[in-house]
Design a protein that fits this description.
By secondary structure, this protein is an alpha/beta fold. It has a domain of 94 residues. It is built from ten helices and twelve strands. The strands form two sheets. An eight-stranded mixed beta sheet has the order 6-7-8-3-9-10-12-11, sandwiched between helices. Helix 6 links the parallel strand 7 and strand 8. Helix 3 packs across helix 4, helix 4 crosses helix 5 and helix 5 packs parallel to helix 6. The protein is globular. The C terminus is likely disordered. The structure holds iron/sulfur cluster. The site of iron/sulfur cluster has 13 residues, from loops.
C-alpha cells in the first residue's frame, strides 16, 4: 500500500547563517562563526519535528531563521510553498503569520505594560483582516480558554502571572494568527519541572485542536521524545542524524546521538543499572574554528583515521528517512543504545 501523501508546510534548503567575528578599532573580520551551516528540513502538516543538541549547536539561530526573525547568509525557507526571504513588507508580514515562534523565556517575551487581553488581541490590530473589530473580544476569550486561562487573567499584567501562565499567554497570542506551524524554541526549559509537563501536554492538545505542525527545539531528549514524530540531532550548526522518533531513540546511528541518549535520565529504575553511559570527551568545539573532517571527531570514541580528513555526508542508514552523517553509520554490526520507552 502506498504511503499517504502529506502536505509539506515548511521546507528548509541548505540554510546557512554565518556571523562575522570583528576585532580591533577598524572592526576587521578575523573569523566566521558558523551558527547554522547547511541545514535541510521538511515539515509536513500535523507533524512534530523535534530538534535536539547541546547548547550552542545552532538550534535557536535556526528557530529565528525559520520565523524570519533573522535572515540567512544563504539558503531558503519555504512556508506553504512561498519562499520567506523573497518577500518584503506586507507580503512578508502575511507569510510570517503562518509560522509563529514560541520563545524560550516567557518572562521577556511579553510587554510588561500590556494586559493579557491586549497582548492576545494585538495580532488582530496588526492583521485586521483576520477578525472584525466586534469579534475580537470573543476570540480573545476563546483563545485564553483554549490555553487553560480564564477570562479573569485577561485583565492581568505579566508580572501578576506565573511562568507557566506567561507561556500560555505567549501561545494564545501566537494562535491568534491562526498559524500552520509553531516553532517552539525551548518552550519549557525556563519553567519549573512541575509546570513543564502541563505545557507539553497543552501543546499536544493544541496540535489536534488547531491542526498545527511543530518544530520543537529542546536539549531535553525526553521532552522531545514525548512529542516528536521525527527528530533531527544538531551538532555545530549541522544536522548529524535525522529520522523517525523510533529510529533515533531506538536505533541511533550517530555516535553523538548515542552519547546524548546514554546520558539522558532513564525513568525506569529497572533499566538504570543496565545502561552504559557513553562519556562525551571535552566541551563542544568552537563553531568559529570547527575541527577538520567530521567535526565530532575530537570527542568521538569510535573515530577512525578518515574521520579527521573527510566530512561525512548525511546519508541513509537503515529505515526509510533515517539519515546520519557518520562514516560508520551504515555498519550492520552497530549496537543499538538501549533506552527506556
Ligand atoms: Fe565518529 Fe568518525 Fe562517525 Fe564522526 S565520522 S561520528 S568521528 S565515527
Amino acid at each position: 500500500m502506498n504511503e499517504p501523501v502529506t502536505e509539506t508546510v515548511l521546507e528548509v534548503r541548505d540554510l546557512v547563517r554565518h556571523f562575522p567575528i570583528r576585532q580591533g578599532v577598524l572592526r576587521r573580520t578575523v573569523g566566521v562563526l558558523k551558527a547554522v551551516d547547511g541545514v535541510d528540513l521538511v515539515l509536513r502538516k500535523g507533524e512534530t519535528l523535534g530538534i535536539v543538541g547541546e547548547s550552542g549547536c545552532g538550534k535557536s539561530t535556526l528557530a529565528r531563521l525559520l520565523t524570519a526573525h533573522d535572515r540567512p547568509t544563504s539558503g531558503e525557507v519555504t512556508v506553504l510553498g512561498r519562499s520567506l526571504y523573497d518577500l518584503g513588507g506586507r507580503e512578508l508580514r502575511r507569510a510570517r503569520r503562518h509560522i509563529q515562534l514560541i520563545f524560550q523565556d516567557p518572562y521577556t517575551s511579553l510587554d510588561p505594560r500590556m494586559t493579557v487581553a491586549d497582548t492576545v488581541r494585538e495580532p488582530y490590530d496588526v492583521n485586521p483582516e483576520l477578525a472584525p473589530r466586534g469579534e475580537r473580544d470573543r476570540l480573545v476569550r476563546e483563545l485564553l480558554e483554549a490555553v487553560g486561562l480564564n477570562p479573569d487573567h485577561g485583565g492581568r499584567y505579566p508580572h501578576q502571572l506565573s511562568g507557566g501562565q506567561r507561556q500560555r499567554v505567549g501561545i494564545a497570542r501566537a494562535l491568534a494568527l491562526r498559524p500552520e506551524v509553531l516553532v517552539c524554541d525551548e518552550p519549557v526549559s525556563a519553567l519549573d519541572v512541575s509546570v513543564q509537563a502541563q505545557i507539553v501536554n497543552l501543546l499536544e492538545e493544541l496540535r489536534e485542536e488547531f491542526s498545527l505542525a511543530y518544530v520543537f527545539i529542546a536539549h531535553d531528549l525526553s521532552v522531545v521524545q514525548h512529542l516528536a514524530d521525527r527528530v533531527a540531532v544538531m551538532y555545530l550548526g549541522k544536522v548529524v542524524e535525522m529520522g523517525s522518533e523510533a529510529d533515533v531513540y531506538g536505533s541511533a546511528a550517530h555516535p553523538y546521538t548515542q552519547a546524548l541518549l546514554s546520558a539522558a535520565p532513564v525513568p525506569d529504575p529497572a533499566l538504570r543499572g543496565t545502561l552504559q553511559e557513553i562519556i562525551l570527551e571535552g566541551e563542544p568545539p568552537s563553531p568559529i574554528d570547527p575541527p577538520s573532517g567530521c567535526s565530532f571527531h575530537p570527542r568521538c570514541g569510535k573515530a577512525v583515521d578518515a574521520c579527521s580528513l573527510t566530512a561525512p555526508a548525511l546519508a541513509p542508514v537503515d529505515g526509510a528517512g533515517h539519515l546520519a552523517a557518520c562514516h560508520l553509520a551504515a555498519d550492520p554490526a552497530r549496537e543499538p543504545v538501549p533506552r527506556a520507552r
